[in-house]
């Protein structure tokens, strides 16, 4: 497994896409935090959670990066060489998932503390110290959400095998479908509360008074969706031709 991880790390980091995606995710997330801080009308009421509102822009980039990490291999048929070298397809795909997830967590960590840092620089008098569990969760939760999102994206990439299709499904689902279900009369909001990316948002930002699960329950639900999709993807990859 160590060799597989090293191989997947080399394959990922020797292409330009992850590097550009990293820069884009950090730039969008931290840049949005900077814009919000610059436009804060009441610095004394500015909260830690507000510094992390830009995480959704970085999340979209991470979804695209993670999906491309696997779909480009199918596009250029390099996945066949991987499966010939490693007959255990599940092990190869798990190694790829682990490397992509680790990079996504690192991006989230830098983005979260970078957003907090620029907000502190712009608003030195704002109460932005991490003094409570909720404040720590709002910051540390970002890399956790990015990591789970990467697992979901890799799984969708394995299932669909096409870059355009996988990216379209991921972005349309997270940006449109989960919000459009609220238009369903009576039950729309209840349905959205159980959507995976809505759960990740609940974990980071709350509130929890009218939500089905608490913060860590929401993260566990989100992670459970990722694990279920990955298991399905591994099962499909073992049965069909590369």
Give the ordered list of helices and strands.
HHHHHHHHHH
Radius of gyration: 19 Å
Helicity range: over 70%
Q: Report the biggest beta sheet as strand number plus sense, adding barrel if it closes.
A: none
On the 0 to 100 scale, the average pLDDT is 90
List unreliable stretches of 5+ residues: none
Number of individual domains: 1
What is the overall shape? globular
Q: How many β-strands, per DSSP?
A: 0
**Alpha-carbon distance between the two ends:** 21 Å
Number of helices: 10
Structural class: mainly alpha
Proportion of beta-strand residues:
under 5%
Structural account:
The protein is mainly alpha-helical. The protein has one domain. It contains 10 helices and no strands. The two termini are 21 Å apart. The chain crosses the membrane at residues 20-41, 53-72, 93-118, 138-160, 167-185, 219-237. Keywords: Membrane, Transmembrane, Transmembrane helix. It comes from Actinokineospora fastidiosa. This is ABC transporter permease.
Notable traits:
single chain; 242 residues; mainly alpha; 10 helices
Q: How are the secondary structure elements laid out?
A:
Blueprint: H1 2-13, H2 16-38, H3 55-75, H4 78-85, H5 89-122, H6 133-160, H7 163-180, H8 188-193, H9 196-205, H10 215-239
Helix pairs in contact: 1-5, 2-3, 2-5, 3-5, 3-6, 3-7, 5-6, 5-10, 6-7, 6-9, 6-10, 9-10
Produce a short descriptive summary.
The chain has helices at 2-13, 16-38, 55-75, 78-85, 89-122, 133-160, 163-180, 188-193, 196-205, 215-239. It is mainly α and 242 residues long.
